[in-house]
Amino acid sequence: MDRLPRHIAIIMDGNGRWAKKRGLPRTAGHAVGAETFRRIATYCKDLGVEYLSVYAFSTENWRRPKDEVDTIMGILETYLKEAIGIIQRDRIRMRFFGDTSVLSPVLRELIAETERISDTCDGVQVNLCVNYGSRSEILRAAELWAQDREAGDTEELTEEKFGSYLYSAGIPDPDLIIRPSGEYRLSNFLMWQAAYSELYFTDVLWPDFDERELDRAIIEYQRRDRRYGAVR
Ligand code: IPE
Ligand code: IPE
Ligand code: MG
């Protein structure tokens, strides 16, 4: 327990395949996946993990059929309506990574409300990545920096300063990134922040992921030797 990752990031993948295996529509997988997320967030809180970042919807996921996108947005809406109570109960601090300005007015309202309530919470910080993509995050950071530069900021651009323009400003990089569903890629997730993250892959599909699977990932993480380029 004294070598717990401070920050765990998860690519919540495999909902569609989980549903297909059961002869259900893909959207049924997203509903169960949302339930898995609730459980895992609570478990992280119980363990004492400080930060949990989850990939819920990527900038590329707009390429999916409109029906599926609408269902995912609907699930997010339902989740946020319920989350407001859970956040207060579990003292979860919820933040959003990604361009949420293009989401529906109802969702934007819920996001604002969730962030407002979160301000008073001091438990695990959950970063919900919605309409998030690493490349667009990095471009946005470059634009924000250029604006400050234009406005007279002459401070040297360091890695640390650049990081302060990312959605993850002020948050330590993920120690452990988990991708379920048997895919071995980052799919545009936290590419700047993942520079020295330990990567963990499992074939388990996200709706089947549970507390024991998270334990496995953490135990595997604890076996790793993190050298950061040095020798030891
Ligand atoms: C992840 O599950 C959820 C989102 C990307 C929104 P998928 O929907 O990608 O599930 P698979 O990969 O098709 O099984
Ligand atoms: C990554 O999963 C995005 C999320 C889990 C939200 P995808 O299913 O969209 O990624 P690819 O298409 O397999 O790379
Ligand atoms: Mg997928």
The distinct bound ligands, ions and cofactors come out as: 3-methylbut-3-enyl trihydrogen diphosphate, magnesium ion
**CATH fold assignment:** Undecaprenyl pyrophosphate synthetase
Low-confidence stretches: none
Tell me, briefly, the overall form: globular
Radius of gyration: 18 Å
CATH-level-2 architecture = 3-Layer(aba) Sandwich
Number of helices: 7
Cα distance, first to last residue? 23 Å
- Strand arrangement across the biggest beta sheet: 3-4-2-1-5-6
Q: What level of helicity do the residues show? A: 40-55%
Under the CATH scheme, which class? Alpha Beta
Given helix and strand content, the structural type is: alpha/beta
Order of helices and strands: EHHEHEHEHHEEH
Question: Brief overview, please?
Answer:
This protein has 7 helices and 6 strands, in the order E-H-H-E-H-E-H-E-H-H-E-E-H.
Description:
44% of the residues lie in helices and 15% in strands. It has seven helices and six strands; from the N terminus they run E-H-H-E-H-E-H-E-H-H-E-E-H. Helix 4 (105-118) links the parallel strand 3 (93-97) and strand 4. The two termini are 23 Å apart. Bound molecules: 3-methylbut-3-enyl trihydrogen diphosphate (IPE) (2 copies) and magnesium ion. One 3-methylbut-3-enyl trihydrogen diphosphate binds next to strand 2.
Features:
single chain, 232 residues, alpha/beta, Undecaprenyl pyrophosphate synthetase, 7 helices, globular, binds 3-methylbut-3-enyl trihydrogen diphosphate, binds magnesium ion
Chart the SSEs and their pairings.
Layout: E1 7-11, H1 15-21, H2 26-47, E2 51-58, H3 66-90, E3 93-97, H4 105-118, E4 125-132, H5 134-150, H6 159-163, E5 176-179, E6 198-201, H7 211-223
Helix pairs in contact: 1-2, 2-3, 3-4
The protein binds 3-methylbut-3-enyl trihydrogen diphosphate (IPE) (2 copies) and magnesium ion.
One 3-methylbut-3-enyl trihydrogen diphosphate (IPE) binds near residues 13, 15, 61 and 181.
